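Quick illustration, no need to memorize.
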Amino acid sequence: MLLRAQDCIVVMIDHQEKLMPSMMNVQQVLANSLAILKATDLFKIPVITTEHYPDKIGKTISDLYAYRGEVIEKKTFSAAKEHGFIQKLVEISQHTKRTHLLFIGCETHVCVLQSLLGIHEQNHYQCYLVVDACGSRKSIDKEMALRRASQAGVTLLSTEMVLFEWLESGDNPFFKPIIQDIKQLT
């Protein structure tokens, strides 16, 4: 059940300019998302990013913009219903032989949950939700989304769990830069 960096793809859902300011604990969600995305850069982990109606909601927030990887615009709440997203996910997965998807994003109870459950039910991927790298406007909505995801068999993780599992050891050459990011998390 431990994550290995070489098995993972990170799916970043709708961390967008006009959406993020209304999230609870937005600074924590952004800091945790950034820590994960910086680690994807080190470990060469592919990232797929969705932007929901970017002409209306804005592009990916500037703090995370450089780490977006493949970007898919979407109109449906669930990325699993966007042909372009599924096509890109399958392409990356087949090319890299990666089958573990880590979801981060907003809003936890809408686009993240619908995307996660839509992909999870296809049984092609092991799905994980990084709880502290996801946001909603209300705590009850996030709490209910986490319950539903867990009941569906999705593994819930924290940012630190992900980063330490990817590192595997203090001898990992990426330990020092990652531990610096971990120390800055609240």
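The radius of gyration is 15 Å.
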